[in-house]
Specification:
Elements (H helix, E strand, L loop, with lengths): L2 H18 L2 H7 L4 E3 L5 E2 L1 H11 L10 E13 L4 E14 L2 E18 L2 E14 L7 H4 L3
Helix pairs in contact: 1-2, 2-3
Amino acid sequence: MTSRRAVENLIARYAELVDDGDFAGLGLLLADASFVGSGAPVSGRAAIEKMFRDTLIVYADGTPRTQHVTTNIAIEVDEQTGTAVSRSYVTVLQALPELALQPIAAGRYRDRFERRDGEWRFVERRADVKLVGDVSRHLRRVAEQP
């Protein structure tokens, strides 16, 4: 597998894990990385897993009932240093029995990767949400506000 394909697979795996509600898997995927979103940066397997558990609403099927669509993926690999960077767009869709399928957020990811022991790993994921819809059924802190 090419380095570019390995990095692209990591980007796709992140979306799958979030949409599956597999927060332990996210902690493992980002164990060597910092996650930078709307709050303070979070690093380390346990802290990243906890952040997702504390932030996202999970439904009876064990998922947040979302679909993360990652597009416009641009990856630059430096084989000499074993590093890569990527830029991509993300659109988050959500549907519930009482909520028609709709986009609830859109933004960009800026990621950094390193190859360690022959395996590509996230080093940093920056999520910059530019457009926000109705996230009251997705994010706990929004849902819990009076």
